[in-house]
Design a protein that fits this description.
With 374 residues, the protein is of the alpha/beta class. It has 2 domains: 232 residues, no CATH class; 123 residues, abc type-2 transporter like fold (3-Layer(aba) Sandwich). Strands 2-1-3-4-5 form a 5-stranded mixed β-sheet, with helices on both faces. Helix 1 packs across helix 9, helix 7 packs antiparallel against helix 9 and helix 7 packs across helix 13.
Length: 374
């Protein structure tokens, strides 16, 4: 069994070596894509999930929370019991912004002092962080004007002082777009190369008539499928390493978390891309049809997965449709590992649905492939 799979694998590598255009595309595409699309397009987002630690719990603090909700930029989705829970919510991606209101919030204003509110912002997405900063400044200015009006109404007899916002941007303090874009590009490159090359490899065999020749050999259908797919899985992992190297050495984007964990979870994501490529190959008769179907799959993945545009700004139907795309979950995983340094304990909620989607697609593709070989 192993010798038969190895024979197909060696044959596939020989065929790849004899096709210099395909080999050049496989080896150079990751670096080219990273160099061309290394800088993100900043977009304005709305309804950022926000968590609040209200240590004051008085009228003024509740008015501040209401002002955040009314701004249209922030949606207060939860209240934290302590600073650790607030930080964990941001680490896990449940919230993008955390607001800590101190216990003496109202007393400071009543005594004529500035009331300091600490704000923690997830800076792994620069567009989100910038929008949050601008909106927080606007809310602070609005509160300052309200406080000044109240003081004037009281003829200077004390009252609220202007609100002082103390932002702390996490994970990407400089809010560099490149730090957000490079992890996304790695996920996109891994998907594109694997999907397209897998679809082309099998369709090319069908066009040349060599697939029928392989069918009449003693090879079992699953051995043939495994031997055809393994070379492109290996090349895809080489692409991951190339992309990580370019990101680190050229753009200076280092991996904050575990590299082995990133590679293992990349392998899980690879299953879905291999399955999609195999599924496309089973319904395509020519390479032209395969590329058209591949683009039909890849374009929604780029637009709806959060690769370039924040999913928080999307209409609800499109936002929910993104959950059916494995790349959506992998982008959160790779950005969580590279930018935040989080571990598997905070990535389960994205790993499980990604693995299920990938397994379903791969099984369906494998069943259809075996049916065609029967």
């Amino acid at each position: 069994m192993a010798s038969r799979v190895l024979a197909v694998l060696i044959k596939e590598f020989i065929q790849i070596r004899r096709d210099p255009r395909t080999l050049a595309m496989v080896l150079l595409l990751p670096a080219v894509q990273l160099l061309l699309f290394g800088y993100a397009i900043n977009t304005t987002v709305e309804h950022l999930p926000t968590i609040v630690l209200d240590q004051a719990d008085d009228r003024l603090s509740r008015e501040l929370i209401q002002a955040l909700n009314n701004s249209g930029i922030f949606d207060v989705v939860a209240t934290a019991r302590d600073a650790g829970a607030l930080r964990q919510a941001i680490d896990s991606g449940t919230a993008r912004v955390g607001v800590i209101i101190p216990p003496d919030f109202a007393r400071a204003q009543a005594a004529g002092r500035s009331a300091a509110v600490q704000v923690l912002i997830d800076g792994s997405d620069p567009s989100t962080a910038q929008s949050a900063l601008y909106a927080l400044v606007a809310v602070g200015q609005m509160r300052a004007i309200q406080a000044l009006s109240a003081r004037l109404a009281q003829l200077g007899l004390g009252g609220e002082m202007p609100l002082e916002v103390q932002p702390l941007v996490l994970y990407n303090p400089q809010m560099q777009s490149i730090d957000f874009m490079i992890p996304g590009l790695i996920g996109l490159v891994l998907q594109n190369i694997t999907l397209i090359l897998t679809a082309f490899a099998i369709v090319r065999e069908r066009e040349r008539g060599t697939l029928e020749q392989l069918i009449v050999t003693p090879l079992r259908s699953w051995e043939l499928m495994l031997g055809k797919l393994l070379p492109y899985a290996i090349l895809s992992f080489c692409n991951v390493l190339v992309a990580l190297a370019v990101g680190a050495w050229w753009f200076g984007v280092e991996i904050a978390g575990s590299v082995p964990l990133l590679l293992i979870l990349s392998g899980v994501f690879l299953i879905s891309s291999l399955g999609l490529g195999l599924l496309i190959s089973t319904v395509s008769q020519t390479q032209g049809q395969a590329i058209q179907l591949a683009m039909f799959v890849l374009l929604p993945a780029i637009l709806l997965s959060g690769f370039m545009f924040s999913r928080d700004a999307m209409p609800l139907p499109l936002h929910d449709l993104g959950y059916a795309i494995p790349l959506t979950y992998f982008l959160k995983i790779i950005r969580g590992i590279m930018l935040k340094g989080v571990g598997l304990d905070l990535l389960w909620w994205d790993l499980v649905p990604m693995a299920l989607l990938g397994a379903v697609v791969f099984v369906l593709a494998a069943l259809r492939f075996r049916k065609q070989l029967a």
